[in-house]
Amino acid sequence: MKSILLLRSVIGLVCLLLITLVSQAQSTRTLTGRITDATTNGGLPGVNVLVKGTQQGTTTNADGQYTLNVPASAATLTFSFIGYVSQDVDIANRSTIDVTLKADDRSLNEVVVVGYGTQRKIETTGSIASVKAADLVQTPVSNVAQGLQSRVAGVQVSQNTGAPGGNISVRIRGTNSINGSSEPLYVVDGIQISNSGGINDVSPLSTINPNDIESVEILKDASASAIYGSRAANGVVLITTKRGKTGATRVTFDSYYGVQKVNKTLPVLNASQFAQLENEVFKNNFYPDPASLGEGTNWQSLIFRQAAIQNHQLSINGGNEKTQVALSANYFNQDGIIINSAFKRYSYRLNVDHRVSKLLKVGTSLLGSYAINSGVTTGSETIGDAGVVTASILGAAIGAPPTLVPYRADGTLFPFGEQAGGQYREVTNPLNFASVLNRNAIKRTLVNLYADFSILKGLTYRASFNVDLQSSLRDGYSPRSIVNKADLNDNSGSGFKLNANGLALLHESILTYSTLFAQKHSFKATAVVASQSEDNNSNQINATGFPNDATQNEALQLALTRTVTSSRSRTRLDSYLARINYGYKDKYFLDLTARVDGSSKFGANHKYGLFPAVSAAWRIIEEPFAKNISWLSDLKLRASYGITGNAGGLNPYQSLATVSAPNPGSDYNINHTYMIGINPSGIANPDLRWEKSAQADIGLDISLLNNRISVIVDAYQKTTKDLLYVKGLPLSSGYGTITGNFASLENKGLEFAVNARILDGPLKWNVSGNMTMNRNKVLDLDGGTTQERFITAYSILKVGQPLGVFKTYVFDGINQTGDAILPGYDGRLGGLKVKDINGDGTISAADQVITGNPNPKFIYGFSTNLSFKGFDLSMFLSGSQGNDIYNAARLSFEMPLGQRNQLAGLANRWSPTNPSNQYVSGFQAGRLPVTSQVVEDGSYLRCKNLTLGYTLPRIKGVQQIRVYVSTNNLFTITKYSGFDPEVNTYAGSNTAIGIDNLVYPQAKSFLGGLQVTF
Fold first, then answer.
1. What residues are paired with 611 via a beta bridge?
2. Which residues pair with 805 in a beta bridge?
3. Strand ranges for 647-762 from DSSP E
4. Could you give the CA distance from residue 615 to residue 82 in angstroms, rounded to a whole number?
5. What's the confidence (pLDDT) of residue 26?
6. Rounded CA gap, 517 and 524, in Å?
7. Closest CA to 874 of 753, 967, 803
8. Which DSSP state fits 914?
9. Phi-psi region for residue 229, left (φ > 0), alpha (ψ -120 to 50) or beta?
10. What torsion, rounded to 10 degrees, do the Cα atoms 289, 285, 890, 835 define?
11. What is the C-alpha to C-alpha distance for residues 846 and 698, in angstroms, rounded to an integer?
């Protein structure tokens, strides 16, 4: 009996198990299908397929196909893809569901980011340009500003230096200041940061990983940027990082590796030619047999190298209806093409959005980075011969005698003063610069915390708290080993450590009300109260006189002489702003904006400034007469006027009377004791205030042929007044100068941008292009007192002229036998000849004229993208036309004074048997005048990027695999004779521009990459 009961139990258990397994097997089913484009019938890759109301889903492969296991109870699938109309499809009893998606050609609901909010694109009344994330990282860049170059009309991006992590200058609609900053304001997820610095500094934007960016909006006109008030005169760049999205979790791995090399080197005299020149200059026989020396040392080949570049990123994105998360980690490492230069960055990003309830949503954006920049000195700001040779590694490599050698027999560096009997003591071994420690380690954390409250229908309040925390440690050491033995003394060996810390805090309370009434009128009001503080401090210790190089700068206490400096500054900005957006029937739009800023930097009489703006738009396409034009998809006319400020050029405490202490060793000697003296250093100016720009803009947005072609045209005029200018004071005042709001200038220009979808079938072809023409003019310098002022020995500020024009003598060939020799210049046979412009028979400063303009006539960019099945091909070109470059290297290395090498053209120098009319003969002492000979056409067309990619057929468990090869700076078409036509020695300067004093050249790179999404 017990056995029967046991058997029944076992049978019952087995049956129950079978029923459970069968029911489970029947609880899910598999759906397959293909998603196609309604116009081309081609498969759409990357379409999101979700079970409606759940997070269960997948994406289509390269052919638009998908496979998805769904619960038996699932009723509806949702198909969505950017740029297409989403569809909900009932599952019913089907196992195969094919869907055709229609392109959302109207793009009426496309949203762009604006200051303190978003707007539908059709509602925008100001001049706003957007750049896609994919375009930003099309080329391997360490700096987000690099990705903007030539992609936006009205935005000029200058790669001041090709050094890894190097500085970038951005000008939106021209240069807007003289002594202040002309860099735009950058807003990263609500956190405001600025970019500035010298040619050898690390750009603050290099600490932000470009791969983390979702989109970039550039606010160009006053109506768009006035919402940022006293910091907006130079334009605003809004950077939004990638956030989590509802749906299945996506894991993406993106990696590339490549090599870089220098585009060109400068031809110089070889050892035989150099030795012959030396014998001529010094009129001796120092080199008895020049021809036997051959090529000699190629110094440029010793400082340039083939350098690696790599980037690896892992990203995770996903979430449900309540919580969305985006997480990424990145490693970027770029070795420089000049030895001992490199940039390395470790970064992470965490963005979280969580809906607590229907009334409350909270979130955070967290970006952290640790960057290490190892640099070498390039781009000396000293003109002339010796300055260029000795102050940078490039100048030293060009000027180094090819008859000398880099190393001793034991492999150590061989100082030039110990070679050739000390003949070349004043020339530096180029490898010395690579032996100098110049490292900057930067930590940066950007944090945004927000809470959104839904108070009433249409009324929301956002509390935003932003933190920008950064610290850096800069190390420097110049070793004793690179000093000539005869020159070693108690000061040999020098080092320093510089610690700098910055903390910026910003709180913003944002109240927004939005409503639609009578189905015709849209109304949105935004009010903001903000308070921002910045606290910066630094301390530095310098030391000289080390016993050896064993510890470098890690034991500064070993040095004989040490000095310490420290500083601290604090500023505060309180702001109140309001904006009203009104629309009628999606046809007429009006925006009103006003902001009041109060800053601790401003003078006592001008603590607060008002920055208003008004703009309007008319969508002509909504008029009855335009709706019937079949080929016209959209037509909008925009107009705006506003006033913005530039407080970026004001340093803390400039409006106050200041005192300073001179450096130790130059103080007062009282009773044989040095005592520190403090003396007045700056005169108070209670009227000091922000620079003010008034800008008018009119624009036209046109879309044609069902939005296949779009054209944007803008014309603007911007007058900037109250510019900061250093004005001379009478000696009786006790001060030499005063900084005040004295100058004014003007920018006006035209912008054109075109985008076109040429082919939409199996073969897709898109092209885009833009062009900008800007004209800059100085209106006033100091109230009419000064009409012209030299900024350098060859560039000037002049009322009625563009900023930074070159003023030099006019080159008139070489003095030949029988030529009349005019007094006042190099009046020897075989010497340089300049034109007597005023005809007075004497060469003097009165014969200098404007011989060049560093501002381009226009800048442009062009990109094209082709795709066929799994293949994609893209190309990006950028260019500048009509700008001049002052080539300081030619002044130095076409001046054969002896003891340094020359450019190869000097092999054809003047001699009695070779009456050259271009190159002077060798001579000692004296200097050549600065002439138009060294002012060159800097126009260029550059292939910034060429990429070929292939997306593999879908593999089970992997959504997408794409491999690609890419080349950057593939070719440059230019007449410029220097290393690189895209050059600016003085970095962010507004006046000393277009100057090449041997800046770090840009590299040509070749790389391969892999993108995998799970």
1. 595
2. 796
3. 658-660, 668-670, 673-675, 679-682, 691-704, 709-728, 737-760
4. 30
5. 46
6. 11
7. 967
8. B
9. left
10. -130
11. 43
Q: Are 675 and 707 in contact (CB under 8 A)?
A: no
Pairing of strands 28-37, 99-101: parallel
Amino acid identity, residue 523?
Answer: F
Q: Give mean pLDDT, residues 304-329.
A: 93
| Residue 662 token pair | 């001179």
* Both structure tokens of 135: 């375009």
Q: Is 22 left (phi over 0), alpha (psi -120 to 50) or beta?
A: alpha
Parallel/antiparallel/unpaired status of strands 168-172 and 155-159: antiparallel
For the chain, what percent of residues have pLDDT higher than 70? 91
pLDDT digits (tens, 9 = 90+) for 59-90: 888 778 898 888 888 888 988 876 677 888 98
Model pLDDT for residues 158-183, shown as the tens digit of each residue: 877 788 877 778 899 998 888 888 88
- Torsion angle, CA of 779/782/787/790, rounded to 10 degrees? -110
- Assigned token pair, 536: 């910066």
Contacts with 53 (C-beta within 8 Å, 6 or more apart), sequence order: 76
- Reference 169, options 199, 214, 139; nearest CA is 199
Q: Do the Cβ atoms of 681 and 660 come closer than 8 Å? A: yes
DSSP letter string, 338-371: BTT-EEEEEEEEEEEEEE-SSSEEEEEEEEEEEE
Rounded Cα distance, 878 and 912, in Å: 46
Question: Could you give the CA distance from residue 903 to residue 891 in angstroms, rounded to a whole number?
Answer: 10
Virtual torsion, Cα 241, 246, 247, 250, nearest 10 deg = 20
Enclosing H/E stretch for 134: helix 133-136
The structure tokens 């610069």 sit at: 433
Cβ neighbours of 668 (radius 10 Å): 10
User: Do β-strands 191-194 and 185-188 pair in parallel, antiparallel, or remain unpaired?
Assistant: antiparallel
Nearest to 413 by CA among 341, 340, 308: 340
Mean pLDDT, range 426-434, rounded to an integer:
91
Whether the Cβ atoms of residue 168 and residue 195 lie closer than 8 Å to each other: yes
Q: What angle do CA 970, 976, 980 make, to 5 degrees?
A: 50
Structure confidence by residue, pLDDT tens digits, 789-836: 888 888 999 999 999 999 999 999 999 988 888 887 767 888 889 999
Burial class (CB in 10 A: 0-12, 13-18, 19+), 917: exposed
392-421: average pLDDT: 93
DSSP 8-state secondary structure symbol assigned to residue 434: H
Q: How far is CA 947 from the centre of its chain?
A: 22
Residues 6+ apart with CB under 8 A from 654: 601, 682, 685, 688, 739
752 CB-contact burial (10 Å; exposed 0-12 / middle 13-18 / buried 19+): middle
